[in-house]
Specification:
single chain, alpha/beta, four-stranded antiparallel beta sheet, 26 helices, 14 strands, disordered C terminus
């Protein structure tokens, strides 16, 4: 079956995200370089670690109090807010401040310590060096800029700033989480100095806080004293104004007078309400009775009149008389004396009721008049009392104003007086906000440098860096390093692999195919031959070109040895179609005047004159002959096409060696005249992109690609790092090759 190659044959397939095997093989491939780099970096790190002096670190622990120990309550004076975490953070920053550090530097005279002032050690050497340079090179005196003159204070300031920078780089303030403790650590080449500085930082911090507290207390006392005098004068003035007002208005107890007036006004208001209710009730009853004066029955039906005690008694008498008549009617007649007496009694009771009703109506009119007079009297009294009360209210407001001023001044004065007494009482009380829980002691062992850790980390880091570099180099290497990459990247079949042959001056014998010591190479050629024949089993394909993408990939060697392999089975001819830089004639040690393909196409010689029979292999060879000035025109001529047709009738296999595809286009021209093509690429040399480009061009022209030959593959290396070549070892073909002793002129394998 004909092998079909699509236009996407050069596209790589999707790879696995993580190929553990490939990672391991990459590390094995670069293992010696990684180990060498790691050991070299580790050795340098060891020398650096040993050259550094030992550093000792001493640590003191301070407890920062959340509340001050004080004799009296004066938090407001000192302004401490210990209820929030910002207070502790502030104290930690104070410990790190330049003021604390400078105080320690001055107290311990660290300016004159060589550890903090390297100029003390190097000053003489630098001065001597500068003098020597300027004495040896006098012309530099004109270029030397005079140093600006500094005062003693400026020089001391600059020196202290340099020492301060070194000091703070060695100092570490680290709070202990969720506690009120803070660790003060200091590193120095001297263990004694390290402990001394750590303790001194804590002492200076405590003393600084005490000094600031005393300054605040003294300042507060002076300010309170001045303020008290002003407040006292204001209090006396406000009290004098209040007394003058009371005398002027003739008031003794304005609060009692105001209360009495308010009470009387409330009582009059209550009486007015009652009088108004009485007047309204009397007027209502009078109007009702007045409208019913002509009918006694209507008047008696009014509830307010009926409920009057007098009317109620009279009506009761009328009711009793009527009931008595009713009882007598059942026994006597109307003219019976008892009936007449009862009727006379009823008439008397009704007359009495009429009289009482009329008198009551007259009394209601009098009641209305009296109620109106009482209401008017009370209203007048209320108006009089309101005027008096309003005047009293104005006086009370002014009195309250003076009294509030007095009270306000008195409160301020009392408050400041109490604070002044508290401040004065506690001004000489020294309270500390911190104390040592652990003082620093001289460390017995150095804290830095951690030489073992440095060496270990250097080895680990360099080893890791070497692995990363190895992966990067492997990723950047876009050449073919294993056989499986050919089919994976190019998408075409791999005909076979030709191993790397170790020969003198990198030259391979022409008849290496027959060398018993190079059985791995011979088996590779046979594998290629088998793949080629299987690829063309069902087709009458006889001619094949062997080409490559670039020069020095081994296409000529591959063509010669493929022709050797085919010659063992069928009649084969090898034609050198590289008319620009022919190599087959030189490889077979033919004379330079030997006519060949160019002579045959030009018609200057016959086929028999140009043909050479190899006695060792039985292979027919047609060399390039005389190098023509127009090789492409010769290959494109009709005479060459006719020659190929005649050769197909005479030979079973025709192998054509061509020029590289990327250099010239001869191979593309020949590919249209032959049946198939074999592409040769050199392992770890030719870039995959170049091979894919060449393969793509051949596919676009419709050339049948039999496969790819991977040349000069290091089988020993491939067996270790890619698995290829293990079958050679299994069959004993991978022995260490020695230079061939075949007495044939040697040429480069990459020819």
């Amino acid at each position: 079956m004909e092998q079909k190659v699509s236009a996407t044959a050069g596209m790589p397939q999707m790879e696995q995200l993580i190929d553990i095997k490939q990672i391991w093989l990459t590390l094995l491939k670069y293992k010696w370089r990684i180990l060498f780099f790691s050991l070299m970096v580790t050795a340098i790190a060891s020398l650096v670690a040993l050259s550094k002096p030992s550093i000792y670190t001493a640590t003191a622990t301070l407890l920062i109090e959340s509340k001050q120990a004080k004799a009296v309550s004066v938090e407001e004076v000192y302004g401490l807010d210990t209820r929030i975490n910002e207070y502790f953070l502030t104290q930690f920053e104070i410990l790190k401040s330049d003021s604390i550090a400078l105080a320690v530097i001055r107290k311990l005279d660290l300016v004159n310590n060589p550890e903090f002032n390297p100029a003390l050690v190097q000053e003489d050497k630098l001065l001597d060096l500068s003098v020597d340079i300027y004495s040896l090179l006098p012309f530099l005196n004109g270029l030397k800029k005079p140093a600006p003159e500094l005062s003693a204070e400026d020089e001391l300031y600059r020196l202290e700033q340099r020492v301060l920078a070194i000091f703070k780089s060695k100092l570490s303030i680290s709070p202990v989480r969720k506690t009120q403790l803070v660790n003060i650590s200091f590193s120095s080449v001297s263990p004694t100095l390290a402990a001394q500085v750590a303790n001194e930082v804590g002492n200076v911090y405590i003393e600084s806080n005490l000094d600031s507290t005393m300054q605040v207390a003294n300042k507060a006392s002076g300010w309170l004293n001045d303020r008290l005098a002003t407040l006292k004068a204001e209090l006396q003035a406000s009290e004098a104004k209040l007394q003058d007002f009371l005398k002027q208005e003739g008031l003794v107890d304005i609060a009692g007078v105001g209360g009495l007036a308010s009470q009387e006004l409330n009582e009059l208001t209550s009486q007015l309400n009652k009088a108004r209710d009485r007047r309204v009730a009397a007027e209502s009853l009078y109007n009702l009775a007045k409208s019913s004066t002509q009918n006694v029955a209507q008047i008696s039906a009014v509830p307010e009149i009926t409920n009057h005690p007098v009317i109620r008694d009279v009506k009761l008498a009328v009711s009793n008389a009527e009931r008595k008549i009713s009882d007598l009617t059942k026994r006597y007649g109307p003219k019976h004396p008892k009936m007449k007496a009862a009727q006379a009694e009823l008439a008397s009771a009704e007359k009495n009721l009429d009289r009482e009703l009329r008198q009551l109506v007259k009394g209601i009119g009098s009641e209305v008049t009296a109620a109106r007079q009482a209401e008017n009297t009370i209203r007048g009294e209320i108006d009089s009392r309101k005027a008096e009360f309003q005047e009293l209210t104005v006086k009370t407001a002014r009195y309250s104003e003076f009294q509030r001023e007095v009270d306000s001044n008195k409160q301020l004065y009392d408050l400041f007086l109490n604070r002044y007494k508290e401040t004065s009482a506690s001004s000489d009380f020294g309270s500390t906000i911190a104390r040592f829980t652990d003082v620093a002691h001289q460390p017995l062992l150095p804290s830095a440098p951690k030489r073992k850790l440095i060496v270990l980390m250097a080895f680990v880091a360099s080893f890791g860096f070497g692995c990363v570099v190895a992966f990067v180099l492997e990723a950047l290497n876009d050449t073919f390093t294993s056989a499986k990459q050919v089919e994976h990247i190019l998408g075409v079949s791999l005909l076979g692999v030709l191993p790397l042959v170790k020969a003198k001056k990198d030259k391979v014998p022409t008849y290496i195919y027959y060398d018993e010591k190079q059985r791995a190479f011979s088996e590779g050629v046979r594998t290629i031959r088998t793949g080629y024949m299987l690829s063309n089993m069902n087709h009458d394909n006889k001619s094949v070109i062997v080409t490559s993408s670039e020069p020095s990939e081994g296409k000529t060697t591959s063509a010669i040895n493929l022709a050797f392999g085919l010659a063992q089975l069928e009649k084969t001819i090898l034609i050198d179609c590289d008319l620009r830089r022919p190599a087959i004639g030189r490889r077979f040690d033919l004379p330079s005047a030997q006519p060949g393909l160019a002579n045959l196409i030009a018609g200057t010689h016959t086929f028999e004159e140009c043909l050479v029979k190899d006695e060792v292999s039985g292979l027919d060879i047609l060399s390039a002959g005389l190098v023509p000035p127009n090789p492409q025109e010769l290959l494109a001529s009709e005479r060459f096409t006719v020659l190929l047709d005649k050769l197909k009738q005479r030979y079973a296999r025709i192998v054509l060696d061509t020029a590289p595809c990327q250099a010239v286009s001869d191979a593309y021209l020949l590919s249209q005249k032959v049946d198939s093509c074999i592409l040769v690429t050199r392992a770890e040399h030719t870039r995959t992109g170049v091979v894919k480009q060449t393969l793509g061009k051949l596919v676009q022209q419709g050339v049948k690609i039999d496969g790819v030959i991977l040349n000069r593959l290091n089988l020993k290396k491939a067996a270790k790092y890619s698995g290829h070549g293990s079958y050679y070892e299994y069959y004993g073909y991978a022995e260490k090759a020695t230079p061939s002793q075949v007495p044939i002129k040697q040429e480069s394998q990459s020819a």
